[in-house]
Every structure is written in structure tokens, then in C-alpha cells.
């Protein structure tokens, strides 16, 4: 086999499955959230898990352009990556930090979430010994019971906020049930947080940026807005209240596309795909499309859901395979190999929206977007044009950083 001396740029090789990331939609959604909150309230875009699978570099830079004030990641490595490419918005690492992270927080100018007093004191000591500084937000547990200081642990909260070197710019909590209308827990959590904010205010210890709400809280509980909101799902354009069409002027950021690879007919009595869970009742024209669970498309259910071809719904037949899914195209018999398939595109039809596809599989839109596999190519819409990453990099002034630091 004769290989080229330099490997080809695999990004230039056509791929049968891809996602389209509409960065204009992201900016539109930022503007919508902006219209729902007081002018002084900041917007944090969660870009953790590679922006829920939408691509954290492109989304972060577009969000900066679109008016986001802060970015949120889960792990320090995600924040470091953004800094390495030149992102200069403040970045809050929402997950707990450990002593081995301290130096990186300082070097990469990331904001740390502090979840317990031991870490707070160890970090403060580190900063004192090294003569350095770091911004932090105090994580408060008001009922999610995931991590953070207990909202009534006033002694430790005061002790942390009074530390000399760790600069507590903010304090936050996370609501567990805001997407369940009428669930009393949401109000209880907001009340606990509000009480703490008031106590600290009275004592002159209130951090400048108090925040509480992700998407559902932001939209349904204005009293939870405080100084910043963190609405991930809404900013990515999906309905946080479930698979019901939303009247909000938000637009989905991700579309998932595939290609027809094969078209054939199956006779009555023949079954399709692993396990033979779908059997033809009559002669049926099948299109085999290139997407499968190896691309992140969910396998859980069989004979469930649709894709869209030439503006028509085509039911999925049998099990989704690793690299293929079979669909019924009997009603559009002249479909051709190579044609584009809309796998997820809420703008075309709600039945193939991210919310509906998630519900078919008893999951949530977050899981579908964040599982999209790396082998799918990303195309970006920016200023109403479909562009490639190379163009965006120039447009956003993203630093050329050759080494991909995470393996
Ligand atoms: C701490 C925190 N803030 C904000 C968000 C964003 O939530 P949503 O995407 O539901 O708005 C999350 C999501 O997991 C989170 O863990």
C-alpha cells in the first residue's frame, strides 16, 4: 500500500454523518435570555461536556460575540483547553476542585467552585505560600445533595468567605426540580439560598455574583435570577420542560444529518436488522442510512422514531445498528443513494426534534447532544452562512494550538 508522505486532512474527507451547529441560533437564544432577566444579571453559558456536544470552542467564541458574560465547565481540563485557544471570558469550573488543581487554577486564571471547608483552607494556604491569587465561587447545597456547603452551615460558610487569599467573587447553588412545575422543592431551595444571601449581606460577607438558576429556574422562577443565570439547555435551543412544542423564540443549535447508503426492497415476511424485530407485511422499500449507535444515535428502542427524507417522515425499522439504520421509504420510492437525511431537526418537524427523539428513548436532549460521536463532522452556521472550522477560527481569532492536549 502506498500512503501519502503527509497524512491527508481527514476533516476534508466527506463523511456520511455530520452535525450542523447553528451559532446564529446560539446568539439568538442568548438575546432571548437577556430579554428575560434584569439588565444587571449576567449570563453564564455552560460549555461543559464539549458544550453538551455542540463544540465548546465554537460555542464559547460565538457566545462571547453574542453577549455571554461567563462560561461554565465541569472539569478544570475543559477550562484549560479553552484558555489554550485564547478564550478570555471568565470561566467557572463548576465541579469540585482538588489540591492537585490549585496551581492550574492560578496559571489558567480559572474560577474555582469551592465545595467544602477543607479544600477552601488548603487552597487559601497554597495561595498564601505561593503569593498568588485565585477567584472562587462558594458552592452551596440547598437540597440537590450533590456537593457544596450545607446552606445552614453558617460557621464554615463564614470561615470560607473570610479567608485572606481566596477571593470569593461568587456563591451558587443548583436546583433539582425546577423543570417539574409545581414541585415545592424548587421554592424551598430558592428560599434557603435567599436566606443565606440575606444573612451574608447583613454581615457584609455577600459575594458579588450570587447565582442559582439553570434553564428551568431562569424561565419559571424570576426570583431565582440573582446576579447571574446558567441556562444551558435553553441557550442550546431545546425545551427544558420536556417534549412539548415551546412558544419561546429559541432555536435549536444542533441538527443531526446522515446520508442514504443503500436502497432495496424486502418481501413480505422478511425481517430487518438484528433480532428480526420488524417484519414486512408487504413489499417494502428500505433505505439504509449511515447513522448508528457508533455515532451516538440511541439504540435503546426498536421500531421507534422517524427520520426525514425529502420533507417526509420515514419510520425507523427494527434495531439501530452501530453504523446503519434502516428506514421505510415505500412512500418515496425514487429516493437515491447519497441523498441527505434529517435525523434530528426540530425546525423541520417536531417529531424529529431533539426533545421528541429523546423522549422516544426515555432520555433527555442533553444525553443525545453530548453523546454525538467524534467521527461526525461539524459544520457551522455563522452569520447565515455554512462555514468550516478554519473560517471560524479566523473569524473568532482562535489561537492556533496544534497539540490537542486531551487524550
Ligand atoms: C451547576 C449547573 N449549572 C447549570 C447547568 C445547566 O443546566 P441546564 O442545561 O438545565 O440549563 C447545569 C447542568 O447540568 C449544572 O450542573
Automatic annotation (TrEMBL):
Catalyzes the interconversion of L-alanine and D-alanine. May also act on other amino acids. Substrate binds at residues 146, 322. Its cofactor is pyridoxal 5'-phosphate. SMART domains: Ala_racemase_C. Belongs to the alanine racemase family. This is Alanine racemase. It holds the Pfam family Ala_racemase_N. Pathway: Amino-acid biosynthesis; D-alanine biosynthesis; D-alanine from L-alanine: step 1/1. GO terms for cellular component: cytosol. Residues 253-381 form the Alanine racemase C-terminal domain. CDD domains: PLPDE_III_AR (cd00430). Keywords: Isomerase, Pyridoxal phosphate. It comes from the Bacteria. The active site is at 48 (proton acceptor), 274 (proton acceptor). One of its GO terms (molecular function) is alanine racemase activity. Its EC number is 5.1.1.1. The modification N6-(pyridoxal phosphate)lysine is found at residue 48. The keyword Oxidoreductase does not apply. It is an enzyme of class 5 (isomerase). GO terms for biological process: D-alanine biosynthetic process. It catalyses: L-alanine = D-alanine.
Amino acid at each position: 500500500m502506498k500512503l501519502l508522505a503527509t497524512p491527508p486532512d481527514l476533516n476534508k474527507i466527506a463523511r456520511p454523518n455530520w452535525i450542523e451547529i447553528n451559532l446564529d441560533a446560539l446568539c439568538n437564544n442568548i438575546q432571548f435570555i437577556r430579554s428575560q432577566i434584569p439588565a444587571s444579571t449576567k449570563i453564564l453559558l455552560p460549555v461543559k461536556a464539549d458544550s453538551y456536544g455542540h463544540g465548546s470552542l465554537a460555542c464559547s467564541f460565538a457566545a462571547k460575540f453574542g453577549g455571554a458574560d461567563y462560561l461554565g465547565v465541569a472539569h478544570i481540563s475543559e477550562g484549560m483547553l479553552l484558555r489554550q485557544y485564547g478564550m478570555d471570558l471568565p470561566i467557572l469550573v463548576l465541579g469540585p476542585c482538588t489540591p492537585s488543581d490549585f496551581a492550574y487554577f492560578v496559571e489558567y486564571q480559572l474560577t474555582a467552585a469551592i465545595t467544602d471547608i477543607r479544600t477552601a483552607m488548603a487552597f487559601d494556604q497554597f495561595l498564601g505560600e505561593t503569593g498568588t491569587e485565585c477567584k472562587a465561587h462558594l458552592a452551596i447545597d440547598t437540597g440537590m445533595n450533590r456537593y457544596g456547603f450545607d446552606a445552614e452551615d453558617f460557621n464554615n460558610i463564614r470561615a470560607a468567605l473570610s479567608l485572606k487569599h481566596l477571593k470569593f467573587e461568587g456563591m451558587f447553588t443548583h436546583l433539582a426540580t425546577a423543570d417539574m412545575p409545581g414541585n415545592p422543592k424548587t421554592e424551598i431551595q430558592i428560599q434557603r439560598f435567599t436566606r443565606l444571601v440575606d444573612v451574608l449581606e447583613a454581615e457584609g460577607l455577600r459575594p458579588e455574583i450570587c447565582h442559582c438558576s439553570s434553564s428551568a429556574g431562569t424561565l419559571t422562577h424570576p426570583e431565582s435570577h440573582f446576579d447571574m443565570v446558567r441556562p444551558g439547555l435553553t441557550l442550546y435551543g431545546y425545551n427544558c420542560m420536556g417534549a412539548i412544542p415551546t412558544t419561546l423564540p429559541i432555536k435549536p443549535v444542533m441538527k443531526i444529518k446522515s446520508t442514504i447508503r443503500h436502497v432495496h426492497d424486502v418481501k413480505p415476511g422478511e425481517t430487518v436488522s438484528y433480532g428480526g424485530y420488524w417484519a414486512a407485511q408487504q413489499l417494502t422499500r428500505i433505505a439504509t442510512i449511515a447513522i448508528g449507535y457508533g455515532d451516538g444515535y440511541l439504540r435503546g428502542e426498536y421500531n421507534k422514531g422517524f427520520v426525514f427524507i425529502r420533507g417526509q417522515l420515514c419510520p425507523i425499522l427494527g434495531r439501530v445498528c452501530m453504523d446503519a439504520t434502516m428506514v421505510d421509504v415505500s412512500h418515496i420510492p425514487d429516493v437515491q443513494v447519497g441523498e441527505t437525511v434529517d435525523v434530528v431537526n426540530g425546525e423541520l418537524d417536531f417529531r424529529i426534534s431533539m426533545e421528541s427523539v429523546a423522549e422516544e428513548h426515555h432520555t433527555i436532549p442533553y444525553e443525545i447532544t453530548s453523546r454525538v460521536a467524534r467521527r461526525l463532522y461539524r459544520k457551522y452556521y455563522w452569520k447565515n452562512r455554512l462555514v468550516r472550522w478554519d473560517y471560524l477560527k479566523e473569524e473568532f481569532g482562535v489561537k492556533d494550538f496544534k497539540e490537542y492536549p486531551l487524550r
